[in-house]
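Here is the promised in-class demo. Please do not try to memorize the tokens; focus on the logic of going from shape to residues.
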């Protein structure tokens, strides 16, 4: 897949994911949360079926969130359904189970740490580390440079994370 298109899909996925969550959590607006959930599901599914690195990232995020019980609203169910249907129809790249498991553990660690670390410590480093979900960033960085997938996927993942943060700031200012 073209690198520019892949980068755009990661950007859109991050932005739509955060907007979906914020419309649901902050505004209790199921309609807009679901619309952005559909867009997130589509963008991440298209990336997943088109690129092995994206498949590792987005499948790991989905499974990590499922295990952490973070799929907690209808907007998440809709997004997940769109993602799964597109992946089933189009097919996903062949994945190495070990690499996928490492990514899932990274995503799960981030979700658990994000929710719990502030409750157990005042350590600024640890709180920032899990607030901005650095476990997955490190995992994707190491796997990319180890050759599990293209290094550009790491850049795309950083773009995803930046879009997610930008969406949060934008949402706050506009709503």
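The designed amino acids, position by position:
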């Amino acid at each position: 897949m073209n690198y520019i298109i892949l980068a755009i899909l990661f950007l859109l996925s991050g932005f739509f994911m955060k907007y979906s969550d914020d419309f649901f959590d902050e505004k209790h607006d199921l309609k807009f949360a679901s619309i952005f959930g559909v867009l997130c599901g589509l963008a991440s599914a298209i990336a997943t079926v088109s690129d092995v690195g994206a498949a590792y990232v987005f499948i790991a995020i989905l499974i990590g969130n499922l295990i952490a019980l973070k799929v907690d609203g209808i907007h998440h169910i809709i997004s997940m359904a769109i993602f799964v249907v597109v992946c089933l129809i189009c097919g996903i790249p062949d994945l190495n189970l070990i690499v996928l498991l490492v990514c899932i553990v990274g995503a799960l660690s981030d979700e658990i740490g994000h929710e719990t670390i502030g409750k157990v410590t005042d350590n600024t480093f640890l709180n920032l580390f899990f607030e901005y979900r650095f476990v997955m960033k490190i995992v994707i960085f190491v796997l990319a440079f180890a050759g599990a997938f293209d290094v550009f996927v790491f850049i795309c993942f950083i773009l995803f994370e930046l879009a997610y943060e930008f969406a949060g700031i934008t949402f706050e200012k506009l709503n």
